[in-house]
C-alpha cells in the first residue's frame, strides 16, 4: 500500500532519459538490409562508396606504418646527435 506522498513523488529517471521525448520512446526502428538501403544509389555513387571504403582501409593500414617510420627517423637523428 502506497501513501499519498509516495504516489505524488515523480519517478526517478536516468540522466539520458531526461532528454528523450515521449515519441522517441515509442518509435521502433526498422531493420533494413544493405540492398534496400542503397536502392536509389546510381553506379557513380556506388563507385565512390567502394573507392572511399578501399581508401579508408589503405589509410588505416598506412598510418601506423608511417608513425613507425617517423619514429625510426627521429631515433636516427637522436642517435647521431
Which structural traits does this protein have?
0% strand, 4 helices, flat
Major sheet, described briefly? none
Please, how many domains? Answer: 1
Strand content: under 5%
Structural class computed from helices and strand pairing: mainly alpha
Distinct helical segment count? 4
Describe the structure.
This protein has 81 residues and is mainly alpha-helical. The chain has one domain. It has 4 helices and no strands. It has helices at residues 4-8, 22-26, 34-37, 43-80. The chain is flat.
Secondary-structure blueprint of this entry?
Layout: H1 4-8, H2 22-26, H3 34-37, H4 43-80
Task: Briefly say what this structure is.
This protein has 81 residues and is mainly alpha-helical. The chain has helices at residues 4-8, 22-26, 34-37, 43-80. The radius of gyration is 27 Å and the shape is flat.
